[in-house]
Structure formats: C-alpha cells, structure tokens
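User: Hey, quick favor. My workstation is busy. Could you predict this chain's structure for me?
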Amino acid sequence: MEGNRPEVQWFPGHMQKTRRLIAEHLRLVDVAVELRDARLPDSSANPLLRELLGEKPGVIALNKSDLADPAITKRWLAYYRGQGQPAFAIDSVTGRGLRAMLARTEELARDRTERLVKKGGRARAARIMVVGIPNVGKSSLINRLAGKAKTRVENRPGVTRDKQWIRVDEKMELLDTPGILWPKFDDPEAGRRLAFIGSINDEIYDSEAMAAAFLEWMQTRYPERLRERYKLPPDSPDQTPAELLAAIGAKRGCLLKGGRIDTEKVCRLLMTDLRAGKLGPISFDEPPGEEQTDEDQTEKE
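Assistant: No problem, here it is.
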C-alpha cells in the first residue's frame, strides 16, 4: 500500500544557489544539454530545469543507457523525437552515442554563433551548458569530452558545488553545473526511484524501507533477475519483501553474531548491485500513454 512506502523529500541549501547560478548563466550559453538517467527518463527530469531553460535550444541525453532496458530506452527516444525534442541514448563512460549527440548540439548552437558574427561580433566556440539532477553523470560526460579528468567525479549526490567552464576544443566550451533537485516530489514514486539509483543521499531515508520498496517493485517487473542473482528458490516471487531480504542475507552471508540477518548490510548490497548494473538492465519509467502488457514482460524475462 502507498501509505506504507517510504517517501523521500530532499532539497539542501546549495540547491537554491544552483538554481540561481543556472538562471544567471543561461544568457551566456547557446544550447543546454540536459542529462537524465536512462533508467528513469521521466523521474530524473527536473521540472525546475524545464522552467529555467524555457525556450533555450537543448537536447536530452539519456545517460547510463548501458544500465537501462534497451527496448524501453528505444521507446523513450521515439517519444521525445515525436514531440520534436532531440534526444540521444549515451554512455559517458564508453562514449557510446556521444558523436551523434554532439553533432546535433553543435548544429543547434551554430544558429546563435553565426548570428553574432553577422552582427559584427567575433567568431567564438559554441557554449554548452550541461544540467541535470545529482548523480546522472555530468562530470563523467565532461571528462569524457575533454579527454582528461578536468572535473571532480564522485558517485555521491551534490559533489560539484560551483560552475566550471571547460574548453573541449576550438569549437566547444562546456559549462558544468552542480546537480539540482526540486523542493518537493509531487509523485512519491519518483522520489523513491531517484533514491534507488543514488540521486538522493542514502543517509536521509530508511534504508530497510527503501530496499523493501525496491524488492516489491522487482517482484512485479523483473522477478527472474532476483532469483538468478541471489540464487533464490522458485517460490521467491510469493515471499514478502522482509522474507526476501532475509533470504538474500542468508545466501550472501550477511549475518550477525548468533546467525541473525544483518539487514543493514543486505540493504547496502541490494542498492550497490542495482547501481552497478549487476541485476541486469532495468528501466523504472515507461513513456506516457503506454501500458506494459504481459507479453512485453514475458519478452523481458
């Protein structure tokens, strides 16, 4: 039941500072690249960013696409492009998809840079702002494009605290900004899913309740993944989340003195496995107006 599921709300003070920073520097850039997590393109779309960007040309980059269900990612790309919104599936670690994304980004920026020259200004590199919520891979993307680690990368929400201009080449400069969340999640499910992938600090919510919510979701969408990963018995889909936590803890040796299950350790194990892709490619969000059928689910498994 919804009332028993953990709710997540988190908006630290530096988020407000980031909002002001983005608004102040939008006039300096030609195009915005909004990074979203390919596993949840809708839940990781910050409504504050959409409001701030307004009519600024931009592209949507679904990062960490290697961790997402490829069939669902393909449907998301078709959905965005059907709305006239340039969108690309990328992997900032391997570089997959970046060439096509950059080509479109440079094309969008060219309109503005050429207008400046026609008005008597000097030719300059395209200026691209990279925006997104925490932990979607902004710094990793910029490091990949710049060819070396020019920004600090850490798998922890909110580590980039100030703006950074990075020269990629003679054609492009990137403005990195800290990740920004929004003050209140109108959809509690979106908050939970952001917590699953690590966009929200693990320390602010009940880890056991969050792990139970994740297991409950997995039982309805990818039950075979749980059985395969943790060598669970065939009847595991009928178990409660608490029973599953205990079973996984026993299988993985997450035990305290006396043989009791170390629940906290099991919860950390689950989230680590999810975020590292060890449960296979998973997508939490599906495009609006599309219902998943039993046949779709069978094909996944």
